[in-house]
Amino acid sequence: METVLETTALCKSYRRFKALDGVTMRVPKGAIYGLVGRNGAGKTTLIRLVCGLQDPTSGGYALYGRRWGERGLARVRRRMGAVVETPSLYGELTALDNLKIQARVLGLPDGGQLPALLELVGLGDTGRKKAKNFSLGMRQRLGIAVALCGDPDFLVLDEPTNGLDPQGIVEMRELLLRLNRERGITLLLSSHILDELSRLATCYGFLDQGRMVREVTAGELEASCRKCLRVRVTDNAALMRVLDARGVEYAETQDGPVDVFGDVELTDLSMALLAENCRLLSASERDESLESYYINLVGGGSRA
Amino acid sequence: MRNLLSAGLFRLLRSKQLWLTALAIAAFMGVFIVSTSGQAIHYGEGLDSRFFYLFLLADLFCAVFCSLHLGQEYGEGAIRNKLMAGHSRISVYLAGLTCSFLASLLLLFIGGLGAIAFGLPLIGGFQMTESGIAAHLACGVGSTAVYASVYTLLAFLIPNRALSAAACFLTSILTLSFSQKIFSGLEQPERILSQYLFTPEGAQLVENGGEGALNPAYVGGVQRTIYEFFNDVLPTGQGFQISNLSVERPWLLLAYSLVLVLLTTALGLFLFRRKDVK
To answer: A73: phi > 0 → left, psi -120 to 50 → alpha, else beta; which?
Structure first.
């Protein structure tokens, strides 16, 4: 499969602080790649390097096969659009004027295709309203429109739903899916809102403390996300003693119930709990979410 | 770079900051000429005695405009769009410098129009020869190029718009003050032919006779050479010479301006290429 972006042992240090430490990753063509990590994991740093805003300390990356430092990389960047952190807009200009400027930066005619671009992102009726008077959601969408000006086939978005209200998040998700499915645009999205990313991404890269912990496809993630039995009892300590005695893996949840992995015979468990003066209140089957998968991956929460 | 210039000019012409600054300069020159026209007429001076003060103003309005205009590129992240579109750091910097210089020229032009609009009916026309006017104008444009170059350097290296504006403004004030001190020192005559003595009975005019008395404030020797050097090299020093219609070596001043533009641009490019853009 063709690769749009590939990084090889990418490192970035700011004085003594190592923001990225040997990150190797691959974004396939046509994918929606979810870059997952907590605040300070290195997501934005990685995006800044790939977008050419900063140079790596060591290692490298390749965009459409052109390696960092090669002459042709600048030309290949025209195939890429990006919104890094906040949208880069001129506040005193209208939405259309912002697009016209970007078209000129790219050396494109600022003709009829720009109003259509505004319609695509839902800003067709902004008229003479200045960008500084836009809501956050509108600014985010205008930022994406600016990134789409050059008709890119690779779009990099750094936390695109940051600060949006629930409706804004839904609209953003629908727009991104449309861009991927209708226009075939490869997307690299960074986020720490896992639930939202799980509705979009076709593959994931989990970043923690500047290191790529794991890369998985959505299919692989689904396969490895384990089913469990969520059990609610009157005495968690008693339950854990019973499970330890049987060598069954389990994990306490934050709000009380215990997730039990592996096969457990409910009747047998109930009788064992009764012997410990503990009553079984409820038991339900659950799949492991992206959130718990991530937390287990980077540490915290699980006991085996 | 052509694309960047096209985008830069598109934005420049729609910039409220530019047109408000132009209006302010034209208004200032108008007020200045109106308030000093009586004096100009009394001493038989022409419009040139007031017009070329525009090039002293150039330092301040370049500092303010360039830092705010370019600072906005950083503050609103537009500089990222240009780099992400594949433009080199050199292109981005030179396009910014060119736009700053063109904006400064436009401001000078509008300020000049304001001066002429008020000055012609009140004071009359220029009294200098055409070659003199051309020489002073050329030196004025040269010094403006240095201002644009210096303030572009500061704006590109200081991402924070407020800090950048403060740094540019401070640089402007300090260099103006420094050049004013130097120019005043150089203007002191070597000998004083007459002077006022202030006694309890009042001021008395005393003629020194002959060649006059030595002026203790006169700057001579090596110090004078150093003063003259800074007066010619610094764009603010050149501004004082231009406004006082005392440019004697225009080619030397232009050469100094060119060297300063090249040095500051080279330094700016060197540092900007190494800067991590956030």
So the answer is: alpha
Distance (Å, whole) CA B130 – CA B133: 5
Give contacts of B159 with chain A, Cβ < 8 Å: none
- Which among A51, A97, A104 is the nearest to B3, CB-wise? A104
Query: For every residue of B21-33, which 3-state class applies, written as one string?
Result: HHHHHHHHHHHHH
Nearest to B76 among A90, A102, A105 (CB): A90
Question: How confident is the prediction for chain A on average, in pLDDT?
Answer: 89
**Which tens digit of pLDDT belongs to each residue from A228-261?**
888 999 999 999 999 999 898 888 887 788 988 8
For the record, the structure tokens of B97 come out as 């410098």
Asked if A281 and A266 touch (Cβ cutoff 8 Å), the reply is no
Burial label for B121, CB within 10 Å (0-12, 13-18, 19+), is: exposed
Q: Place A195 in a pLDDT band, splitting at 50, 70 and 90.
A: confident
Q: Which of residues 11-30 of A touch B (CB under 8 A)?
A: 14
Contacts of A25 (CB under 8 A, 6+ apart): A5, A6, A7, A205, A212, A215
Residues of chain A with C-beta less than 8 angstroms from the C-beta of B12 = none
Strand, coil or helix: B125: coil
8 Å CB contact of B81 and A150: no
Residue B61 has pLDDT above 90, yes or no: no
The three-state secondary structure class of B207 is strand
pLDDT(A53) > 80: yes
What 3-state class would DSSP assign to A146? helix
